[in-house]
Amino acid sequence: MQRIIVAGAGSESAMSFWMDKEREQGERVPEPADAPEGAVISPDARREKRLPPGQSRTRKWPVLDVSGPPRVELDASGPPRVELGVSGPPRVELGVSGPPRVELESWRLRMFGKVGRGVEWNWKEFSQLPRVKVFADFHCVTRWSRLGNLWEGVSTRELVDRAGGIAPGAGFVVAHGYDRGFTTNLPLDEFLAEDALVAILHDGEPLTLDHGGPARLIVPRLYAWKSAKWLAGLELTEKDEAGFWERSGYHMHGDPWREERYSW
Prior knowledge:
Layout: E1 4-8, E2 14-20, E3 40-41, E4 56-57, E5 61-66, E6 72-74, E7 80-82, E8 92-94, E9 100-102, E10 108-113, E11 119-122, H1 123-127, E12 132-139, E13 144-155, H2 156-162, E14 172-177, E15 183-187, H3 188-191, E16 197-202, E17 205-206, E18 216-218, E19 231-237, H4 244-247
Parallel strand pairs: 3-12, 4-13, 10-19
Antiparallel strand pairs: 1-2, 2-5, 6-7, 8-9, 10-11, 12-13, 13-16, 14-15, 14-19, 16-17, 16-18
């Protein structure tokens, strides 16, 4: 497993890229008919032409990650924040060129902001929530698409319901990651689409660390960077707040069918 550094910003961050050949698909493109009974079929997976403009199919599963400082701490009254040397859960370790290693005993997912009441789940509690399966395509802004993925986890609608519903004024969501306080933003209606979920399984197997495990957001109708890896928190907001990549020029929305890659 070789990581190739393709971009960097001093000692605090760097981007690496590699191909996960263990999850390689066959030549045949998986079809909705292949999904298990009861699975939600993402509407884009029913299109006659499933590749958005400028995209190419990959049978492997490429991995992009950005490294950073070694610890992330969750504040009980706000979003995840980056702090060095802070003791206490959740314990997160970040290597100089790798993803955050979140211990399941200390993993937490918080939903807060403009919801009826803030909620926090530990891994055991989250694992016992009602599950959904979603058959969906996955489109990266770097122009590759992996077609016919089967995700399993908890629907975003279920999570919002358990947080007391949507509070007045909510219109957007900020997803917070364990990786150095990473964030990404998206419209509330995209977040609450039937095919959106917090996934813990991919094609029947637990999500690996490199692909965002133990849990990641999956929003199939937007480019993949909106599906935040290593998910730590979900914040409903009134305003559309630019996340990590959005502040660097990526599109605030990110619809692959409109090629909303960049803001310029």
